[in-house]
Every structure is written in C-alpha cells, then in structure tokens.
Specification:
The chain is α/β, with parallel strands linked by helices and about 110 residues long. It has one domain: Rossmann fold (3-Layer(aba) Sandwich). The protein is built from four helices and four strands, in the order βααβααββ.
C-alpha cells in the first residue's frame, strides 16, 4: 500500500488502458469500476494525462532506448513529473539512465 510517509507516485493514463483491458474483455463492469475508483481516488497517486511535453519526452526516449510506446510514455511521465524512481517488471527498462529504475523481481 502506498503511504504518504513513504512516497508519492505518478503514473500515466496509459495505466488505465493497461489495467482495464482484461476486465473489459471479461465484461466485468464491477471490476472496471473498482480499478478506476482505486486509481482515481488514491491520494498519493497522481494520474498524469498525455501532454505535448510528455509525448516529446516519450519520443526522445524511444529514439535513444527504443522501449515500446506505452513504456516510453510511462517513463516520460515519470521524468516530466520530476520523479526520481521508476518501478517496473521489465528488466529492459533498467537501461534508461535518466531515472533510478527498480525492477520488482530484483527488490529484496
């Protein structure tokens, strides 16, 4: 659970696309609502909409590191929001030197 004493988190609206896809495929409206409410109402989590500065940074990251577009948007969101750490399951993203990338499987 995210605690304000520990950290504040930012994510892109891409997270909603990624999280809601499976419940929508299953026609599980209750789960769609539950996930949407959780992500939208967690005080320590800011959902950032895709903007021109985020898109430009995502394009730069794609040019340098070639991540998938959704990953580039997430990384760019983190950078433009002046976050210092990026949490992921994808070890390939640890190449991004602009952030401290933490891979979940590698955390103690």
């Amino acid at each position: 659970m995210i605690s304000s004493e520990q950290l504040d988190a930012v994510t892109s609206t891409i997270t909603l696309v990624e999280v809601l896809t499976r419940p929508l495929q299953l026609a599980n409206a209750a789960l769609v609502d539950r996930y949407t409410q959780f992500l939208s109402n967690t005080r320590e989590l800011t959902i950032v909409e895709l903007s021109v500065p985020v898109a430009r940074e995502a394009a730069r990251l794609r040019a340098v590191y070639n991540p998938r577009t959704p990953d580039a948007v997430q990384l760019a969101t983190t950078i433009t929001e002046s976050a210092t750490h990026f949490l992921t399951n994808d070890t390939r993203l640890s190449r991004v030197s602009e952030l401290n990338v933490a891979v979940l499987d590698e955390l103690g």
